[in-house]
Design a protein that fits this description.
three-stranded antiparallel beta sheet; globular; Cathepsin D, subunit A, domain 1; 12 strands; seven-stranded mixed beta sheet; mainly beta
Amino acid sequence: MTPRGAGRTSRKPPGILGWREWAALPDLGVEAIKVKLDTGARTSSLHAFDLERFDREGSAMVRFEIHPHQRSARNAVQVEAEVVDERWVRNSGGIRELRPVIETVVRIGKERWPIELTLSRRDEMGFRMLLGRQALRYRAVVDPGKSYRAGRRRGPRRPEPSEPGSRQGGGGDA
């Protein structure tokens, strides 16, 4: 008998990450964003403000804004990206939504790899980004009892509530 997995090309063993991590989306200009690693979600999702679809030379495009820090509009990043697909996704309330899909690179710790992201309004969710199991496949194992195994945050700090650009109180942006 051949051992399970024999004959496969050698892959680097997956790293162990916590259920939440700090990540970067360098191709989108995001230095730091808190991400929930959600093995219950098939696809990854990014909270996109002011989503606008348009065409550029025959390619479907999307323009949107990312607020990388929860409860703050400070350090907003404006992005244009090509739409590579549209997918029906069930949101956390079980309702189906047709979402645009973009491709980008995620960096967690020292590792970086390409992912697909669906764009959605995540106003009432606790994280600006979910990294689903398709993006984690062959890359990471999630330890649900740990956080920030890849390291603490790098990049600009989140503004204090009294600073300009921050939002006071709970608000609708989680």
